[in-house]
Amino acid sequence: MGNKQNKTAKKLTCAILLAVFLAICLCITTYALVMAHVSVKENRFQTGSVNINLNDGKPVIEEHEFLFEPGMTVKKGFFIQNESTCEVYYKLYFDKVAGGLANVLEITIQEGDKILYRGTAASLSNAKVAAADDVLGVGERRELTILFHYPEGADNSGQNQTLTFELSAKAVQTRNNDKKEFE
């Protein structure tokens, strides 16, 4: 029986030594993995915010401010300002467009003599307009003009028609965004 106890003790000792060896290997591997993920030298991450002020939230044209007729053009000023912590690409578009004049009035948005957008309220939607060509710097404010023109050739086809819309702005940071992706 002594021989049988020796074999059992030997097996038990080997099992304990193997368990200790595997535990040490597990600890070393875990430590190596943690250090590989934690110690990334000289990488800095910075967060920021993107915030645009579009005309202090005021409409560019008030309801019932004008009664449009063929040949008439209305010119209104407004601004866009970058209140972000970084440079941004921006786009202006019409949202919640409704009314019979949505496809009649010709709208132009410009900065000085440079035309940024041109089309009807229906065609200048978020999905259809691209980002402006230039970058809006941190704290930069741009004075813009919007023109509403009722084409002479439209006659009175828009008589008793209306147009309601929200002029909106969308912005996205320029860093790591060469394709000006907004989504």
What does this structure look like?
There is one protein chain. With 183 residues, the protein is an alpha+beta fold. The protein has 2 domains: 1-43; 52-173, Immunoglobulin-like. It has 1 helix and 7 strands. It has one helix at 2-38, and strands spanning 52-54, 73-82, 88-98, 106-111, 114-119, 141-149, 164-173. A 5-stranded antiparallel sheet has the order 1-2-6-4-5, with no helix packed on it. A two-stranded antiparallel sheet has the order 3-7. The protein is rod-shaped, with a radius of gyration of 33 Å. The protein starts with a helix and ends in a 10-residue tail after the last strand.
Provide a concise account of the structure shown.
The protein is α+β, with helices and mostly antiparallel strands. It contains one helix and seven strands; from the N terminus they run αβββββββ. Strand 4 and strand 5 form a beta hairpin.
Tag the structure with descriptive keywords.
single chain, 183 residues, alpha+beta, Immunoglobulin-like, 2 domains, five-stranded antiparallel beta sheet, two-stranded antiparallel sheet, 7 strands, 20% helix, 30% strand, rod-shaped
List unreliable stretches of 5+ residues.
Answer: none
Tally of helical runs: 1
What percentage of amino acids are in beta strands? 25-35%
Q: Helix- and strand-based class?
A: alpha+beta
Give the H and E element order: HEEEEEEE
CATH topology name of the largest domain, in short, is Immunoglobulin-like
Helical fraction equals: 10-25%
